[in-house]
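Run log, item B.
One chain of 330 residues. Sequence copied directly from the ordering sheet:
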Amino acid sequence: MLKLFELFTMGLLQFCLVRQGETKIVERRGKFQRVAEPGVSWLFTMWGYGDMVGKFTISKVIQTEAGPRLVAQRNVDTISTRMQVDDYPKESIITRDNATVFIDAVVYYKVVDPHKAVYQVEDYVAALQKLVQSALRDECGKYELDELLTSRDQINHALRTSLDEATDPWGIKVDRVELKDIDLAEFGKILAEQRATETRRRTAVTEAEGEKRAQILRAEGLNESTVLEAEARKTSTVLQAEAESQAAILRAEAEATALVKQREAEAKGFEMLKTVFADGSVESTQLLEVLRVLKASEISGQLANGQATKLFLPADIGNLFGLVERVKQA
């Protein structure tokens, strides 16, 4: 139908069909006219002297057995506005400590201004690749080899920021940059040896610190055990002395109590004798005196020790014994 319409208009008008996610550049006599958005656009061709779709050279990254490769494509009339993902070939990078590594990056970007993308730079895909190569060398060259392997997030952020700023005049928005692979080449073995050496050193240090700590703990345990044993012995001695002292006090109190009771019983006995012999006779008085002398001899221990060989009694002791018999009968 479009062909019939073009035939009907004698080539004066043509239709341009643009798919979603794509745009086309409309030029008139070699000069930019407008951007054809998705849908159907009218072209006033005027037999080749009016509007026409511009054709440009835009490269494309393709995957081969040898890796990603950039291929130039000429007479391209369609510009994609979708998010594009390009995997660029590996680049040789020299780190700050003069180590040579090979890094390939993946860039996520899209064309936000087709007019700038085709008129501000020749082949924006190839230009972006060169820019990525330069940014990789500049940014990764700031790091040493060890830092490079552990700072991917920082490098990705720095690359995205620098590339986005550099491609803004081209109408390109860089959304994300990822370091896909870091090939250490011969430095990989050197780094592996360094890591193994460092691991062995850390292991030795850890073992030494562990042994040191174990010795300290053993010494502290022995010291605490000695202190506890000494305190236990001290406590046991104190308790034993307190027990012995308490036992001695109790024995002394018991003996004193027994002695007091004995004295009380003796006093009661004398009182009873006084009551019996209360007649006031000479015999009663002499008998009481004899009992006092015998008690004094018992207390002094003269008879028990055998030191006393004589005991003086009253001359009329016989009468006294008769008096005792009389008391018993009473």
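Observations after the first pass:
- The first helix runs from residue 2 to 8.
- The CA atoms of residues 30 and 170 lie 20 Å apart.
Flagged for discussion on Thursday.
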